[in-house]
From TrEMBL:
It comes from the Bacteria. It holds the Pfam family P_proprotein. The keyword Hydrolase applies. It comes from Actinokineospora iranica. This is Secreted trypsin-like serine protease. Residues 46-266 form the Peptidase S1 domain. Gene3D superfamilies: Galactose-binding domain-like, Trypsin-like serine proteases. CDD domains: Tryp_SPc (cd00190). Keywords: Disulfide bond, Hydrolase, Protease, Serine protease, Signal. Residues 269-389 form the P/Homo B domain. GO terms for biological process: proteolysis. Residues 1-33 form the signal peptide. InterPro entries: Galactose-bd-like_sf, P_dom, Peptidase_S1_PA, Peptidase_S1_PA_chymotrypsin, Peptidase_S1A, Trypsin_dom, TRYPSIN_HIS, TRYPSIN_SER.
Amino acid sequence: MTEGNWLRRLRKTVLVAVGAAALVAGTATHAAAAPPPSDGPVTPQVVGGTRAAQGEFPWMVRLSMGCGGSMYTDTLVLTAAHCVNSTGNNSSITATYGTVDLQDPNRVTRTSNYVYRNPGYSTSAGGDWALIRLSSPITGAAKLPLATSTAYDNGTFAVMGWGSATEGGAQQRYLLKAEVPFVPDSTCQQAYPSMKTAVEICAGYPQGGVDTCQGDSGGPMVRRDSAGNWVQVGIVSYGQGCARPNFPGVYAQVSALSSAIASAAASLSGPPQSGKVFENLNNVSIPDAGAAVFSAVSVTGVTGNAPSNLAVGVDIKHTYRGDLVIDLVAPDGTAYRVKNSSSSDSADNVVTTYSVNASAEVANGTWRLRVQDVYTADTGFIDAFRLTF
């Protein structure tokens, strides 16, 4: 597949101005997962928009791979399937919430610990959606409800994002918003003959000028419900360029997908934790650029398997925490990566709680925290390691 064909499909994904380090997901594998529209080049940002006010869209999320999203629960972000590579453990994505300014010192950030990518995304039924589970909840986060019927799949919609304000332009520091009208399937198919009418919805002006663009992928398209509250009707998916005449934006149709999204969300939430805590408070020195070291806890008295939201508490004292790679190792030796190294993360210490989907593991047995320093010049120690079942 040529680069031109790849760009034709992924109109809404950030392809510029984010840097290789930010593209943890959303690379050329997107094109492999979904064939491009049959004609013309594709891209997405909010073109023809204005700056959103703080708190206007409180459920809006920016994802570090260069996509948007919306808060579905305190721990789950709804985004586009083409923004992520696959289903599985993933601690490389950072979600930014609670601000319109990405440089706001009061912004709220969380890392991911798991990604669920719609397994039917590349099929004829389509469905460009994914869920990103956060390592810890954003307690009390504003949530965006989903349309569960076609009652709101009409009229004028609001779109928003930090994507480009012009086709091929730079990403934005401030959240932009715009309004776009519904486009009937029959009209949209004239622009995109391969459009999946069962799971896609279109919006835009015949004359162009207003649209989502590069960097807006995965963000919500919304409108007011009968009570005046926002409801999500679409997920930014693809389009031909940005705001071009007769090429509306194409969005995943939430009303057709809400049941599947809810089912996946329920599976990711897992059973409630029992509250049993197992911890090791013995210090373990971490050698500089040396072999991995371990802190272990022995789990007993827990029935069945570990939960899908196993809480892994970590307290590591270490200068330049980007040196560290951290894994949770189950009793059978299966390793779950909770933190990758990062040469750009110069902050001190790792004091946090990760959430690991360990539901395939028998709960009882010896669990180990494996920590390795992979760069020279800084050292530290594991101060505490705890598991909460």
